[in-house]
Amino acid sequence: xxxxNVLHPIGWDAFGLPAENxxxxxxxxxxxxxxxxxxxxxxxxxxxxxxxxxxxxxNTCDPEYYRWTQWLFLRLFGAGLAFRKLAPANWCPKxxxxxxxxxxxxxxxxxxxTPVVRKDLTQWxxxxxxxxxxxxxxxxQLEGGWSERVLAMQRNWIGRSEGAEVEFEIAETGDxxxxxxxxxxxxxxxxxxxxxxxxxxxxxxxxxxxxxxxVKELQDRLQRTPLSERDQAGTRExxxxxxxxxxxxxxxxxxxxxxxxxxxxxGTGAVMGVPGHDQRDFEFARQHGLEVxxxxxxxxxxxxxxxxxxxxxxxxxxxxxxxxxxGTPSPESIGRVTAWLEEQGLGRAAVSYRLRDWLISRxxxxxxxxxIVHCPSCGEVPVPDEELPVLLPDDVDFxxxxxxxxxxxxxxxxVPCPSCGGPARRETDTMDTFVDSSWYMxxxxxxxxxxxxxxxxxxxxxxxxxxxxxxxxxxxxxxxxARFFTKALHDLGLVSFTxxxxxxxxxxxxxxEGSAMSKSRxxxxxxxxxxxxxxxxxxxxxxxxxxPVEDDxxxxxxxxxxxxxxxxxxxxxxxxxxxxxxxSGGGVESRAGDRSAPEGSIRRLTHRTxxxxxxxxxxxxxxxxVAKLMTLTSELPRHLxxxxxxxxxxxxxxxxxxxxxxxAPHVAEELWREALGHAESVHLAPWPTFDPTLARAEEVxxxxxxxxxxxxRLTVPADLDPEASRELAFxxxxxxxxxEGRRIxxxxxxxxxxxxxxxxxxxxxx
Length: 766
Ligand SMILES: [Zn+2]
Ligand SMILES: [Zn+2]
Hints:
seven-stranded mixed beta sheet, four-stranded antiparallel beta sheet, globular
């Protein structure tokens, strides 16, 4: 309506666990279940009159789509960004599959809420960590377009910290163990050393220390313990390993422990214990009777007494008990110690990230097969591009067993090696469904391309996405993955830009009686009945009017009946205007004369409404714009009755219908053509424009009375709120004089009416 070409696509992110689990529960094939649901949802969207471009629709589970997901996987594989490694993985015992760190929420499966345990498996990963710095730096492109909240969540998720890597030697075995620390200036305060329970050196060290049995016991127990109970905030339990680490800065031997509070995922899986200056280390030292050594003195204060400390001192200060560095203040001490470590060959400056590589293997059926063949002589061999897609076979027993269902499908698994022709095995893991949605925005530009995932000219025309809408739940999942994919494709020369989404709006969800509705929870409310009762337009506006778009809408508190009544008033008022136009002979063609002066006419309100609603639309304040249209609707009949000019009424009615069109497309179309006599669709008409002079807030006279006597007349904006007009009245010298020595009992205030004075009466008593 404002002259832009808009691509408003819809597609179905249709692979993944929810479909597979629902299918298992109902005994239907996931494919059948998925396509049936897509059909149903599509019919529902169409009933709502949503303006998607249906010609661009696709499903990520269509072979024509996942062919290109596989093709892109192979491009990443070729670039060294897709690789396999043995790694401890998050395992959902209910879904019988691994989960990415991003899919573990408070130690539980993001999908089903089951506590997640650990499992060692060889898995496929995307090397998202290679892009950690660019994912951070390129956020500069997103500032102002994305909410600070989402940017902060991504920043935290990536978790970049600067510090040093330092090598400790294990006295008994000679193994060298690297630790990462952000505070190399506290190295002289190390009094113990801790390994994560999954650290690969652990069995050998425990063996050397004579603690193998107890350590194995702890490891086995932790394997069965949900991650949520191992959280950093929790236990400070730990076992001595019976071996010692040599502190490289002073040659001191400190005892080694294994403790669950050290996580293999972060840093190097081993930490130096500095209880004087790290709170978790402090708690561990107190629990295990270890020395607390103070090596940082708070600035401008005396030395801390380790015995009297009730918590660590993690802040900046001056180095003490640190040999040649005594007296060096932080933060410069960190750089100086790091430089010295490098000189001495004991360590180096390093950056650490919280971000881990993206685990994309799933041991489940309903996903895109990973297009790799494992050959005993050639290793991991990519399926040639011309053999894509690697089709997902239909006849598979997909009930969860902990192993990929595809592994039991002999014809799928046993294939010749594409390279040497010898007998080989096809990869049986499928891809995380987030891979599918990491590039779908590109496919929407060229949905039918059969020679490539997308055509450059289409993608360069439409991308990056100007306005993206999605829930906050995607802040560190989809949005991070799609940003990574875009950067990787940029580096492969496939796209010219590095960020996929310029502006992001996080809409709320429609919930029911306080809890979320979602397909994975299976508590979707069937709107079909209310839709049948009220019609699509009422349902659409009810949703928009329920509150700010960023907030959740609790359907239990929404009143479609109220909106239905309002649309009824719109209907009657616009028809009445149409009839007046017919009587006055003002067909669509005639636009001449017949204009009232702005004072007292509806023109000011019309233009003010256009100005306000246009701005509301631009800022997605749909609920506020509906409220403005409601005001204009109530004024129409008054001006009709008062015999307002036909042209003024036409202008008001047309503006109302045009601004209603995006929200209530059916009612607006009917009114535009039938009541107002236009030949073309309202959806092809331009958005109404306004005259800034007319749109400016009107002024009215505020008559201030004290105990019924007029004391002052003030000129104020007509839309001044009551609070502000009272303040203005009480600040008038003439009014104040009559209030002296009296107490204000009540203040009555009349409503503002265009062209009429507004009354404010102050009632006082002595
Ligand atoms: Zn689960
Ligand atoms: Zn081979």
